[in-house]
Amino acid sequence: MKVEGKAELLDTISSSSEAAAFSPRYEKAIEIRGKVDRSLVEEISREKREPEWMLRLRLKALESYNKLPAPNWLSGIDELDLDELIHYLKPDAALARSWDDIPEGIRRVYESLKLPEAEKRVLAGISFQFESETVYLGVKRMLEEKKVIMVPMEEAVIRYPDMVKQYFSKVFPYAEHKFAALHTALWSGGVFVYVPKGVRIPQPIEAFFFMASALEGQFEHTLLIADEGSELQFIEGCSAPMYKRYSFHDGMVEIYAHKGSKVKFVTLQNWSGNVINFNNKRAVAEGGAYVEWLEGSVGSKVTYVYPSTILKGNDSSTSIYTITISNGKKLKDTGAKVIAIGKNARAKLVSKSISANGGKNVYRGLVRINKGAMNAVVASSCDSLILDGSSSSYTYPHNQVEEDTASITHEARTGRISEEQLFYMRSRGLSEGEAKSLMVLGFMEDVLIDVPFEMASVLNSVVQLEFSKLGGMG
Fold first, then answer.
1. Exposed, middle or buried: residue 80 (CB in 10 Å: 0-12, 13-18, 19+)?
2. What confidence score (pLDDT) does residue 239 get?
């Protein structure tokens, strides 16, 4: 990525709060709401003109949803009532491949996010989902020349059914927990990307998801397939305006990294403060493949997300970075999961959490080394920074080691902000928000060193934006 284009990418992510300042006006084409049952799922599938095999998959997931209990450790979702939500909301806007073809009310959102500039100068491809449907898809000629497939998920179901069947709900099976099953029963939108053997994409691909309505559920499904020896970097951005009531997000990301491939997946989640956010994310890495997750969580009222990698092949590896800011009466329940199956697996898990103004952060980590996964090496670290006496942070690591040759390490640290340092920085002319922003960035420094330059720059920008609003934070 060229340095002169970096500013547009930063603006794309950090300005999501600008888009959250207004609720766009647009026409609705289809709205499906009410009790989650067979008739509702069939109606969604019918509106999408799906093949019979996808409807069967949805209905099997619905059966699991009805049978599975909700995890007993969930908190902060008491107001969630699925029966009152809009589960599918299609705007009156056809899929556009030019910004000018998007209805004006929706186009204002994209322009406020500076997405057109980012696409022009920084990105290899971009997808924009508004409510439940993808309304814009831009794919540069370079991707087409390299035979890269990038289409809305619904289109992939129709055009590439054999490939979709091979991976969809296979990396992250719907029966694993209740909200994964709910997602698969109701999914809509998302992106499908296939990178052929040996193809390396020099610029990132971005998908941006926007919820404009209260009492709405968004259930996008993103499926990335990196064939042998290929390389892909994918950026996911999220935003929503403030509502009088809440909205619900229950997305899924599935990644399959074939032998020798490299996939980097970056999420910068900046939902508004009344969104309940669930996200199901998993990758499978074959022999010699490398998967890197960077989960940056700033917004939302409640977030539950645990990027995970199954190290299936020999010499496969992964890095999972999670950075969460819980500012105000918010809960961020995040973490990382690694399951080693192949030999010589390598994993690095790094968590950084910042709690302020009564915010709560929870880290849940799972490291599982299966019998026969010889010589696995996994290093985990969890660092928490608490900015005041009303905030809190908790760490719950869990290791399951069935192989004597494994090397597993875990360290956790919790610290408070230094009042002396804060006083000194304010005496040098910085506002309280600016001072705390610098201290948080210093706290994150060791993560930013390991993260690629473009990703670190984006995180830096988002953190500064968040703390620029905290002038009166105690």
1. middle
2. 83
Q: Which residues pair with 400 in a beta bridge?
A: 368
Q: Is residue 411 part of a domain?
A: no
Same domain as 167, residue 20: yes
pLDDT at 458: 66
Instruction: Kindly state whether residues 186 and 53 are assigned to the same domain.
Output: yes
Domain boundary among 286, 305, 324: 305
Q: Provide CB contacts within 8 A for 261, sequence distance 6+.
A: 195, 226, 227, 228, 229, 230, 231, 232, 286, 289, 290
Asked if the structure places residue 324 within a domain, the reply is: no
With 70 as the cut, is the pLDDT of residue 469 above it?
A: no
* Phi and psi angles of residue 345, each rounded to the nearest 5 degrees, phi first: -70, 145
If asked whether residues 299 and 440 sit together in one domain, one would say no
On whether residue 45 sits in a domain, the answer given is yes
Give the residue numbers spanning the domain of 429.
421-474
Sheet (strand 262-269) strand order: 133-139, 125-130, 205-210, 231-239, 262-269, 290-297, 317-327, 346-356, 377-386, 407-416
Query: What would the DSSP string read from start to end of 220-284?
Result: -EEEEEE-TT-EEEEEEEEE----SS-EEEEEEEEEEE-TT-EEEEEEEE---TTEEEEEEEEEE
- Please give the DSSP secondary-structure letter assigned to residue 392: E
Phi and psi at residue 162, to the nearest 5°: -65, -40
Q: Are 234 and 195 in contact (CB under 8 A)?
A: no
Instruction: Supply the pTM of this predicted model.
Output: 0.91
User: At which of 255, 272, 305 does a domain end?
Assistant: 305
- pLDDT for 211 beyond 70: yes
More confident residue, 16 or 315: 315
Is the residue at 177 inside a domain? yes
Q: Which two tokens stand for residue 348?
A: 């690095």
Q: Give per-residue pLDDT as tens, 41-89.
A: 999 999 999 999 999 999 999 999 999 998 888 888 988 999 999 999 9
Question: In angstroms, how far is CA 223 from the centroid of its own chain?
Answer: 12
Distance separating alpha carbons of residues 394 and 104, to the nearest angstrom: 45
CA 182 – CA 60 distance, rounded (Å): 10
Structural domain count of the chain? 2
